[in-house]
Amino acid sequence: MANPILQVENLQICVRKKPGVLILRGVSFHVNAGETLAIVGESGCGKSMTSLAIMGLLPDAVEKLSGTIRFKGRELPITDNRAMRKVRAAEIGMVFQEPMAALDPLYPVGKQVLEVIEEHEKLPREMAWARVIDLLTKVDLPNPETLAWSYPHKLSGGQLQRVVIAMALACNPDVLIADEPTTALDVTVQAQIMRLLKRLQRDTGVAIVLITHNLGLVAHTADRVMVMYAGNKAEEAPTRDLFLNPRHPYTRGLLDATPNPERASAQGGVLREIPGTVPSIADPMPGCRFAPRCANASELCRARFPEPTFEGAHGYACHHPVTDARV
Amino acid sequence: MKPIRRRFPWAFLAKRVAYGALAMLVIAIINFFLLKLAPGDAAEALAGQAGTADPAYIAQLRAQFGLDQPLLSQLWAFLVRLATLDLGYSYVFNERVSVLIFSRMPATLMLMGAAIVIAVIGGIVFGVTAARYANRWPDRVISFVALLLYGTPPYWIGLMMILIFAVTLGWTPTSGMENVLAFNTGWDRVVDIAHHLILPALAQSIFYLAIYIRLVRAGMLEVLSLDFIRVARAKGISERRLSYRHALRNAVLPLVTVVGTNVGNFLGGAVLTETVFSWPGVGRLMFDAMFQRDLNLLLSILVLSSFFVIVANLVVDLLYAIINPTVELK
């Protein structure tokens, strides 16, 4: 079963020319073919930066300090824009957060899907266009022949996100990175988009990397979950395992901070928050970056960074893991 | 794949034509009174040229030109002539006004068109280059030169270009529109006129070129930071295609608007450029008409100029709607 298609090893990303200011502090993970890996964490924990690094789309203000990203066993030349163009969309597709801003307002949506196919495959125009219509049908858009000629401002957010998904899957990539694909959408539309992604995954076998801070979404869609905190991987586990038996105090805090009517009475009707704030990326603290906010923290936590411990598929980076299961 | 055609906005066009006609009427009336406020008239100017100040002769000329009529009936006569497209007779140049203007108009339109084309194409090419290499040396060079050109008086640039390219280097003629004595025909004549056109067109375009470079650069930098550019990059398309197909078309929209409002300035600038380069266009005719107090000729040129500006703006609005399909012309 374990067939890693994407492997990230010890990825470190820093602010350009400032190796001390780390955004990613050595993150390793893998994605198996056809599975869904969710990467969760709060804003600024480095989850989006991880996805941009895989696409070779890191902003100019940051750079890779060390680490490798392997796709199907070979290393991705993420700093070589020209070489990465052949990987983008053709092998790894990406869906972004804001569907309203994701399309060029001046071209019909069908043309923008067509552009992907024309870039990566030598196909006669008519065949490429037929594929565009086929893609728009597959993402459940009504009247695809007419809709293909609509301009983005005529479509709703949900429809636009379907177009973006069609664009990302146009060349049958093996991995689809979805960076907060439903955050900007209505709740009802969110569920539709996630169902669509799962169905497309069943049909095409594409592996999905779902980046989100919505734990509810994760519980319903992901096979495995990776929790990130302040540029580090805090915990990684199969979804069910993580929700029932979180070992890292941060994961536990995140889960407890999620509204849940069944637990509300047990917690006295108060939603538990995690005290304190995320440390600055420029803060050179030597130990666990969660220690200042952690109830279990000891001198050891503040002095030395905890190496990841694995119990089967469940890994965590903590000196004093949580042991009691959640109710 | 058949695109869905948009219908031509006839209603919009009809409305704009009506507004344009109204605007021209107002422009004609305002200019009529403005010019009447200036001291002196064509009769005095002609009598002065004839070397006489005989009141009887001047009065006779005035009666002949209709200048002795009450102001309002002169205005009415002028408007009626305009409406019937009969622009009258210039006693100063001894020629029908329409003949005078239309013999000069092609030269001015050619100069103006060449200047606009140079400014727009140059603005786009250099602006896009500057934006693609933002804050690196190509951008720094382009931005510095643009600032320099922006701050230099156009007539001085014109004179310096004559000095350098025509007098010192001998690459181009110093003035005029063509070598009349060569009696060129066909293609030779086109080449000859183009040769004469280079300097004045450059001189007239340079100020606007500088503005357009800065406008396109700023627009490109803004558009390149938008989300859809990152999405397009994630599609694997090339940086060049990204710049010209996606970023530029969005960034060029404000340029189109500005060029539309600048058409009038280009026409106004023609007076200066045509004088410096002895270009036989309407600008110089207007200059001469002003000195000769040839009110009728001057008014006709002004009204015709306003006609061209109004038409140019209409064309720009239609063009804008073509470039930006989210705009609906109503």
Task: Describe the protein's architecture and organization.
The complex is a heterodimer of chains A (327) and B (330). With 327 residues, chain A is α/β, with parallel strands linked by helices. Chain A is 32% helix and 24% strand. An eight-stranded mixed beta sheet of chain A has the order 6-7-8-3-9-10-12-11, sandwiched between helices. In chain A, α3 packs across α4. Chain A is globular, with a radius of gyration of 21 Å. With 330 residues, chain B is mostly helical. Chain B has twelve helices and two strands; from the N terminus they run ααααββαααααααα. Chain B has a two-stranded antiparallel ribbon. In chain B, a hairpin with a 4-residue loop joins β1 and β2. Chain B is globular. Chains A and B meet through α3, α4 and α6 of A and α9 and α10 of B.
Name the helix and strand elements of chain A from N-terminus to C-terminus, one letter apiece: EEEHEEHEHHHHEHEHEEHHHHEE
Protein chain pair with the most extensive contact, residues per chain:
A-B, 37 and 23 residues
Shape of chain A: globular
Going across the major beta sheet of chain B, what is the strand order? 1-2
Strand content of chain A: 15-25%
* First-to-last CA distance of chain A: 31 Å
Structural class of chain B: mainly alpha
Q: Regions of chain B with pLDDT < 50 over 5+ consecutive residues?
A: none
Which bin fits the share of residues in helices of chain A?
25-40%
Largest sheet of chain B: 2 strands, antiparallel
From the alpha-carbon coordinates, what is the Rg of chain B to the nearest angstrom?
A: 24 Å
In DSSP terms (H or I, runs of 4 or more residues), the helix count of chain B works out at 12
Q: Order of strands across the biggest sheet of chain A?
A: 6-7-8-3-9-10-12-11
Structural class of chain A: alpha/beta
Task: Summarize model confidence as the mean pLDDT of chain A.
Answer: 90
